[in-house]
Each structure stands twice: as C-alpha cells, then as structure tokens.
C-alpha cells in the first residue's frame, strides 16, 4: 500500500521499482541513507504522531532518524533510530506477508486502514473483495478514488456499521465475515447522521496541511478549536469557540463514531485539545507542531492524554 504523495521534484529524486511500489510499509528495515517511498510513508506516520518536525521528502536522514529514536523511546523499545520489525510492530504495522499467511484461506488480509488517495496492493485486494461481495462495479486498479469510497460506503451500509467510506478494522472484520454491531442507536439515526458526518469529514480533510496559528480561525492558520468551529460551520452546524465550552456542550459517549469529537488533556488540566474522530482509532485535528493532520489515538502521546468522546446533537 502506497500513498504516492510525492511532489514532482521528489519523484525525480526518489527512485523505486514496481516491486517496491507494491510492498507494504513494514516489509523492510528502513535506516539512514535510504531513499524510498516507504520512507515517505514512515515520515507521514511519524509526523502525524507528532514525532517528526522535518519535511516529508522520502529521504531517511538525521532528522528522520531522530524522529524514529524519539518514537522508540516513547514506546519503550530499543532506541537505535532504525525502523525495523520491532519498531513497526510497536506502531501496529506488520509485515504484509506475515498477515497474509496468518489469514484464513478465503479471507482478505489487510495490514492497515485504507482511505481515499491511497494506492497499492492493499487497495487492489480491497476492491477485489468488495467486487466479490457485489459492492464494487469499478475497475480493480489499486487506486482508492471516489468510486472505491462509494463501494466501501455501500458495503458499510449493508453491514450496519458506521458509513464513512474508510476501510478500517470494523470494515475489514465485516468483510471477513465477522459480526459487527452498528455504533448507532438505530438505523434511522444512522441514516440521518451519515450525511452530516460525510460532509463534516470531507470539509475537515480539505484543510489537511493548513498551518497552526494560536487563535487562528481560517485556512491561513487554525488553532485547535478554531479549526473545529470552522469545519463544523462549513458543514452547517454552529459550535462554541473554545475546547472547554465544546466539551461542556457535547453529550458524552463511551465509544466514538465517525464525526464525534475526541478530547484530550494537554497543556493544562481538563479538556484543552480536541479533534474529529475518523474511525479506525484515528482523528483529524489542528496540532500545534503539525498543523491540520491525522493522528492515531493509540499512539503513546495521545493515549495517555485521552479524556473521552463527545457528540454534538
């Protein structure tokens, strides 16, 4: 699975073969001196978790090695600056061949969450599985575009799970025949909330890469709550300006569904940071060191600061 988020200049610099393009992150050890699409993906993961403060350029240099060491230290594993099996295991990224061999004969093996913009064998396998189940009429091209997202949403509706067009753990479990209960209280509630959630998530993703600015409330610069207020307003819902007031206005839920808010205690006691839950343990937010980005709630940083989830009705 590859994201192929390479600029024209980077494409000229980072050389990779078709075999490399088909590999999944975690299939090889990455270390200083390497230039590879897998390094780009590693950097994206590290930046999303708040460990990388350099550029995403596909080059494993000293800055990337420092980010890897920082993550390794937080995860309590060997701190060598090399991204190998132990590091990828701690990240929750496994070798794709191991995943495949461990799967039941007729089950699809997926190594991580898939969403629009991604490419590779994992996407191709997802498309094949969806086609086999009658939910994908497009081509099997390994490109996760609008047609594949629509196919995922079609399957999610039929399986009675959150409809977000993102293929995460719950979707994979359902695809492989597992029993998954809907996170919504009723099908009617699910149908009525899906349209707003889809619009909200689409708006939220549109501003990925926008910089962080303290007090910022526009795409030229957002702070945490300014970003939330902006994208909720774009989706047609007004919300309070500060994280504390948003937290107070929300109905607390034990398990977030797509479009819910997730709250964290960061620089001060009580709710001081928040993001929008995307499903699969991921959320989108305006981070002070990253700008608008997607992060994983199970990372060591966010997991220990998580306060809970809330829903704005």
UniProtKB/TrEMBL annotation:
Listed GO biological process terms: proteolysis
MF annotations from Gene Ontology: cysteine-type peptidase activity
Sections of the chain in a coiled coil: none
Pfam families: NLPC_P60, PG_binding_1
Annotated keywords: Hydrolase, Protease, Signal, Thiol protease
Hydrolase found in the keyword field: yes
Keyword Protease on entry: yes
Signal peptide location: 1-21
All copies of domain NlpC/P60, residue ranges: 194-313
Family to which the UniProt record says this protein belongs: Belongs to the peptidase C40 family.
Descriptive protein name: Cell wall-associated hydrolase, NlpC family
């Amino acid at each position: 699975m590859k994201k192929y988020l390479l600029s024209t200049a980077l494409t000229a610099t980072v050389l990779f073969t078709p075999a490399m393009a088909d590999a999944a992150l975690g299939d090889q050890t990455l270390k200083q001196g390497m230039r590879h699409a897998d390094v780009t993906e590693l950097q994206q993961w590290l930046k999303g978790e708040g460990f990388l403060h350099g550029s995403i350029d596909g080059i494993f240099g000293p800055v990337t090695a420092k980010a890897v060491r920082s993550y390794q230290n937080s995860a309590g594993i060997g701190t060598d600056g090399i991204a190998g099996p132990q590091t990828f295991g701690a990240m929750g990224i496994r070798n794709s061949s191991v995943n495949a061999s461990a799967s039941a004969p007729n089950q699809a093996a997926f190594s991580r969450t898939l969403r629009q913009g991604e490419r590779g064998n994992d996407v191709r396998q997802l498309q094949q599985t969806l086609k086999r189940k009658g939910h994908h009429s497009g081509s099997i091209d390994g490109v996760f575009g609008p047609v594949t997202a629509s196919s995922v949403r079609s399957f999610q509706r039929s399986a009675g799970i959150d409809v977000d067009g993102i293929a995460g753990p719950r979707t994979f479990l359902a695809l492989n025949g597992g029993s998954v209960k809907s996170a919504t209280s009723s099908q009617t509630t699910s149908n009525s909330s899906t349209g707003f959630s889809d619009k909200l998530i689409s708006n939220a993703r549109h501003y990925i890469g926008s910089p962080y600015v303290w007090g910022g409330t526009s795409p030229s610069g957002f702070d945490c709550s300014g970003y939330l207020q902006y994208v909720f307003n774009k989706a047609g819902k007004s919300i309070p300006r500060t994280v504390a007031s948003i937290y107070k206005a929300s109905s607390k839920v034990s398990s977030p569904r797509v479009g819910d808010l997730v709250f964290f205690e960061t620089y001060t006691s009580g709710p001081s940071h928040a993001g929008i839950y995307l499903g699969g343990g991921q959320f989108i937010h305006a981070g002070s060191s990253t700008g608008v980005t997607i992060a994983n709630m199970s990372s060591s940083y966010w997991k220990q600061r998580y306060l809970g989830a809330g829903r704005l009705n």
